Amino acid sequence: MKEGHFNVSRRVAITTLGCKTNQFESASMSESLVAAGYEAVPFSEAADIYIINTCTVTAKSDAESRRLIRRAARQNPASRVIVTGCYAQLASKELAEMPNVSLVMGNSEKRGVVALLETLDGTAKVQVADIAMDRSSESLHLESFAEHTRAFLQVQNGCNSFCSYCIVPYARGRSRSVPFDEVLAGARKSASAGFGEVVLTGIHLGVYGLDLAPKRSLLELIQAIDADGSVKRLRIGSVEPNEVSDEFISFIVSSKTVCPHLHLPLQSGSDPVLAAMGRGYGSDLIASLAQKLTAAMPDVSIGFDVIAGFPGESEEDHAATMMLIESLPVAYLHVFPYSSRPGTKAAAMKGHLHSSVIKRRAEELRRLGEKKRQAFAEGFIGRELGVLIQGDGHSGIARNYLTVKLEDGVGVVGEEVAVKVSGVNSDGSCNGGILP
User: What does 248-265 look like in DSSP terms, one character per residue?
Assistant: First the structure.
């Protein structure tokens, strides 16, 4: 290292809040740091450098980020605390003023994390570029993944939609796609490294390729990965409901590689609320899509994101959301209590609800989600599922996203085995035995 620069100690711990994109980026940063000679340790252990990769989707995630910063400083008061991610992108000055924070770096700066750490004392405390000006999506390097069995492949970043409640476009910038050939190379590399499944991730995955020259599409990408033959199981991350075409569905049906699982950001089942959110579709489209998916793939797992308590949401609007979800073949819900984000259109809207109302509606949606999860899982009792063994070998994940716990022994981690489902647990996971 150059004289006068911080004599960097080598134990580094990273913790991550938020989406799969953040998880991928944390794994990539960790891999780059290890390659540069750092020792990666769990966040719960004493480290010389702590990196908190933050999320800012809700006020709760902001608070959790601040808690983790304070925790890192307590674990080793002499440590350097680095803050990055979406909260850092939008509130760099606020975070830089926190005691013990050594560096705040934006989302674009993650790919230069090694250089920034090597020159901490010679670097400004805030390293956050204007992400709105970023027009390229460099693929972050990633040879391995902590999950060991499933590789997350970031193929797209940013969002152009600016839904009224969402801060993400401000934190992630414009939509940018990783070049087509780089994604294919990444998928092949993941397969050759022994990952049993590749998961495509992005902030707005459905618009993948529209900014490339020549233009490409998400469908073309999954068709190319499927045709390549190296990936055994391909899972698609969250896709907007109005971006799932009949051709898209037909290809998933015909593919032996693409998993029968789609996560859709529904957000509301009320047309007035969807319009106020700026979602660009109505409840009829959601109902039609869910019915098309299950008609084409009876075993498909459909997940919904839902926001509870959006400004102006009436009891009738909430009831419409509950009724729509109740009527559809939904496998699970991710429920988010509405959180006002400064700078978004929704933050300036009238009709913000009391926190007790938001909490109650979120809890009602969660209970409905648990009921739907249980019913979906029970439909597979006596059925055979292809299960990718994970963790300690005692459980795995089915192609349709069900968690399956093995009753009789341990499977080989990373292998897909045939399991006959014998029962369902209270958390919606299944039990089953490996078939000979």
Answer: HHHHHHH-SSB-SEEEEE
Q: Which residues contact 403 (CB under 8 A, 6 or more apart)?
A: 395, 396, 397, 428, 429, 430
Q: Which of 10-14, 20-24, 59-63 has the lowest mean pLDDT?
A: 20-24
Q: Are 82 and 106 in contact (CB under 8 A)?
A: no
Q: Which domains does the chain have, with CATH numbers?
A: 11-129 (3.40.50.12160), 131-259 (3.30.750.210), 272-280+290-378 (3.30.750.200), 384-434 (2.40.50.140)
Q: How far apart are CA 393 and CA 373, in angstroms?
A: 23
Q: Are 311 and 349 in contact (CB under 8 A)?
A: yes
Helix axes 218-228, 180-192, angle to 10 degrees: 40
The terminus-to-terminus CA distance of the chain in angstroms comes to: 57
Among the ranges given (18-32, 242-256, 286-300, 417-431), the one the predictor scored with the smallest mean pLDDT = 18-32
Query: Strands 261-267, 234-236: parallel, antiparallel or unpaired by DSSP?
Result: unpaired
